[in-house]
Design a protein that fits this description.
Blueprint: H1 2-19, H2 34-39, H3 79-89, H4 92-105, H5 110-122, H6 126-140, H7 144-157, H8 160-173, H9 178-197
Helix pairs in contact: 3-4, 3-5, 4-5, 5-6, 5-7, 6-7, 7-8, 7-9, 8-9
Length: about 200
């Protein structure tokens, strides 16, 4: 009986340790993992971006899948992956539901927080978006990708001054990012249109 209890305790401790090894990710489009940021250009906050990523090496035919399917993004049916799918389809309410579940299950996954923030932006729940971006920043810091997403969020709100300041700060950290440059162009166009209407 004592041996059985110690095995159960050992298994529980092992699972807790593995839970602490979840992915730490970030993006300016909720779909770029931190590992991809180091290997490829940063993601985009542009509404139609399809950039996705994983901290794992690309799939090579004949290699087994990652040994830890509990990591977010490794299973096409986990809440993070399903949230991304709905977000790309423009079903922001469904995306929000799945991203929210993902952050409840994996509160240290910045990619899930940024996905949740982007879904809130599209639902015009900017107060909740700000909180979700804040959580992502607590995990990985103010990365250019997150700042780019925040700048896009301010642009959606019509707060062009704050959007420009945030995007310029992101560009200072990553001057070669085509995504930040694209959002600055979108900002200029949006500001011109708003000025023409007024």
């Amino acid at each position: 009986m004592g041996l059985r209890v110690s095995r159960v305790v050992l298994a529980a401790v092992s699972l807790l340790w593995l839970a602490g090894c979840e992915t730490i990710s970030t993006s300016d489009n909720p779909f770029v993992k931190l590992g991809d940021k180091l290997r490829a250009p940063s993601g985009s906050a542009a509404p139609d971006s399809e950039t996705t990523g994983s901290i794992f090496t690309p799939d090579v035919p004949g290699t087994p899948p990652p040994a830890t399917p509990e990591l977010l993004g490794t299973d096409p049916n986990d809440d993070l992956s399903v949230g991304k799918k709905y977000f790309r389809q423009g079903s922001y309410g469904l995306a929000e539901r799945h991203f929210r579940r993902a952050v409840e299950l994996h509160p240290r996954d910045a990619e899930a927080w940024v996905g949740l923030a982007a879904a809130y932006d599209r639902l015009k729940r900017f107060d909740l978006a700000d909180r979700a971006y804040g959580q992502a920043i607590k995990i990985v810091g103010p990365t250019p990708e997150i700042m780019n997403n925040q700048g896009f969020s301010y642009m959606l709100r019509g707060d062009y001054g704050r959007a420009r300041a945030t995007l310029r700060a992101a560009q200072a950290k990553d001057p070669k990012s085509p995504y930040i440059a694209n959002n600055l162009r979108l900002l200029d166009e949006s500001a011109r249109k708003a000025k023409a209407i007024n």
